[in-house]
Amino acid sequence: MNPSKTVELATPALIIDVDALEKNLSTMSTRHPGSKLRPHTKAHKCTEIARLQLSHSHTSFTCATPREIIGMAAAGIGSDFLLANEVLNTDRLSALAKVSENVQVTIAVDSIETINAAVRAGLHDVLIDVNVGLPRCGVAPELAGQLADDARKTGMTVRGVMGYEGHLMMVGDDEKRKTRVAESMKLLARAAQDVGGEIVSAGGTGTWDMHDETGINELQAGSYALMDTDYAQLKIPFAQACFVLGTVISRSKDWLVIDVGLKSLSTDHGNPSVDGYDVLFCSDEHITLVLKKDSAIGLANIGEKLLVRPSHIDPTMAMHSVAWVTRSDEVLECWQIDLRGW
C-alpha cells in the first residue's frame, strides 16, 4: 500500500519538500540561467531532480562519478556532461566513451596518467583541473598550460579549465569570502590563459553569487537544490528542502530517541538538527535528543514523527534508495535515488 501521508511512512525516510525544491531551483536559475549553471548531480543523485533542473533550461551537468553520467544519459537528461573528478579505471572510462557516442562527455584531468587513461578508454574531450587552493585534485596553475599541450599531443580536445574553491565555501563573512574567492579565481584565470579553450568552470553553492567578475563562465553548484544545515549558516536564499523523517522509539523523563542515525544521514559537517531539540549524540541507528533550554514544547511521545535536518546533503542522499516527495504532510510521489554508486 502506497502511503498518502508522511505519518504513514516507515522510518527512517528521506523526505523532499517539493515546493522548497522548486523555489531553490527557480532562485538559482534566475541568477544563472541556461549554460551559466552546470548543476552538480552528486548533491542529489536523482534523475527526477535533474529532470526538474533541465526544465529550468540547464542542459549541461557536472557529475562526480561515471555512474552519474551513464544514468543521466540513459534517462535522456542533458546533452553535455562534465566528470569533475579524476578517474583511472579503464572499465569505467570505457563505459563513458560509449556514452560519448551520443552526448558530449568531458572529463577532468590533472596529470599525464589521467590523460593516458582517458586516451586508452577512447575518450576525446578534457578540462584541465587546476588547484586553486583546496588541497585536493588539480594541477598547479603554472603547470596547467604544459599539461594542456601534453593532452593535445595525444589527440585530445582541451575544452578549457576547471577549479574548485571548496576551501572557501564556508568562510562566514561574506566580504572576506568574496575577496578570497576573487584571489583564488586569479589562479584559475592565469591557467585559463595558458590552457585556452572556451570553458572556465568553478564555484559552488557557497559562492553562488560571487563570480560576476571572476571570469568563470559556468557555475558548478549542487547543494542549493536540497540544502543542508551547514550551508544554511551562510544565510544564502535557499531553503531546506530535504529531511530525514524519524519516529520516536524510546523516551525517558529527560531525553528521547528517534530511529535516525549514522546509517541514514551524514554527520561529517556536524550534528543534524531537529526543531525544539538539541542533539545529545548520534549512533548507528539512533539520535538521542534533549529539549532546548528555551523550548516551548514538551518531549514528543513514543510513536510521534520528527523531521531531521541533515548537516551534509550529498552523502545523506547516497544512503537512501528512494525519496518521498511531499507537500505539507501529503505524500505526492516516490523518487528513486538512482545515480548512486561509481
From TrEMBL:
Keywords: Lyase
Presence of the UniProt keyword DNA-binding in the record: no
A GO molecular-function descriptor: D-serine ammonia-lyase activity
SUPFAM superfamilies: PLP-binding barrel
InterPro entries (alphabetical): Ala_racemase_N (IPR001608), D-amino_acid_metab_enzyme (IPR051466), D-ser_dehydrat-like_dom (IPR026956), D-ser_dehydrat-like_sf (IPR042208), PLP-binding_barrel (IPR029066)
A GO biological-process term: D-serine catabolic process
Keyword Transmembrane: no
One matching Pfam family: Ala_racemase_N
Membrane-crossing segments per the record: none
D-serine dehydratase-like domain location: 241-327
SMART domains tied to this protein: D-ser_dehydrat
Family classification: Belongs to the DSD1 family.
The protein's name: Unannotated protein
Species per Swiss-Prot/TrEMBL record: freshwater metagenome
Lineage: unclassified sequences, metagenomes, ecological metagenomes
